[in-house]
Amino acid sequence: MERESSSYTGTAGRNTEPASPVRKNINEDNTCVDNSHSSSRDGTCGTTDVARARWTLLRQVLRRKQVDSPEVKQVSVRRFATFDLFSRKRLLTQDPSDTSDDQWVEYRSVYFPEYSALLRDNLGPLRVNEVLNSFDNTGNVCVWPSEEVMAHYCLQKRHMFKGAVCELGGGMTCLAGLMVAICADVKEVLLSDGNEKSIQNVRGLVERNRQAGKFGSTHVSARAVRWDCESDISALEGHFDIVMCADCLFLDQYRACLVDAIRRLLQPNGMALVFAPLRGETLRLFCQLAQKAGLYVSQHQQYDAQVMDVHLKMLREGKETYDENIHYPLLITLTKGPQPVSHTQ
């Protein structure tokens, strides 16, 4: 498919989304609550006000309603879950003491079946008890559609990766970063998220895939990285050839921090890959901030034939579970200087 790419022009999305991340999480997305990128971790960096407020509201909603009510189901049921780019095969656990609801699965690329990763995930409903007792557990639920698309794109473009690669805000799986470590000839891959519980899970994934011989000579590690934490960012400054993230743009309080983190983590000739849906004004505002920070911004809508085919099919069939504004991720590329970047197949 001929791919379309254009420099960012500041065109707003067709729908307008309120700035409040709480409404986005509860009413608009209707999938698992996706906000691991802003969750707090112990220490002195940043604040927990946004996360606490979000979960306080969600607790109030759930406590007022019966668990089986339509309102709660709207929070806990994943409506649009996948672009069908990976197959999932459940693996029998080797540890009889593991009684958690999570399960080990093999995620194998449908279009590049020679590549697969071992994940521990849970694609079921959001567990209400966890919601009521935690405000920083949202990154530990499932693989999000934008992450799935970014992982597929990384396989498609595996030859463009080199040197050191970092995934920011990768949640419980960092699937895209794992796929880069598995398929690309790179020296180093850092998998990161601001949520300590997510990183604990990712470390387990790294060890399991390393034992399975998935990484070759690539050094793969996982650590907590908060975009608003100076010590986290300064420790990694100027280190990466490619920085990437998926669906991390919707929180107003952290959007500028993400732009600054990307700019500082990149080497002078590095590039960032950002996959995110329009979500009303959020993508446009991110691009504006990136331009103000001196980054060169390009926006790509048709960057992959398989993803576009699923997208168009969902639109043609008028699926009630699919909303282009919040489910179809665009590709934003960011560089410190003007570079000819091909995103054609």
Descriptive notes:
It is a single chain. By secondary structure, the protein is α/β, with parallel strands linked by helices. Helix content is 35%, strand content 19%. The chain has an eight-stranded mixed β-sheet with strand order 1-10-11-9-8-5-6-7, sandwiched between helices. Strands 2-3-4 form a three-stranded antiparallel β-sheet. The longest helix has 16 residues, at 49-64. The protein is globular.
Describe the structure concisely.
By secondary structure, the protein is of the alpha/beta class. The chain contains 12 helices and 11 strands. The longest helix is centred in the first third of the chain and has 16 residues, at 49-64.
List descriptors.
eight-stranded mixed β-sheet, 35% helix, single chain, three-stranded antiparallel β-sheet, 345 residues, alpha/beta, disordered N terminus
Furnish the topology, listing elements before pairings:
Layout: E1 5-7, H1 21-28, H2 49-64, H3 70-76, E2 86-90, E3 103-109, E4 116-121, H4 128-133, H5 145-156, E5 164-167, H6 175-183, E6 188-193, H7 196-211, E7 219-224, H8 230-234, E8 240-246, H9 252-265, E9 266-276, H10 282-292, E10 296-300, H11 305-316, H12 324-327, E11 330-335
Parallel strand pairs: 5-6, 5-8, 6-7, 8-9
Antiparallel strand pairs: 1-10, 2-3, 3-4, 9-11, 10-11
Helix pairs in contact: 5-6, 9-10
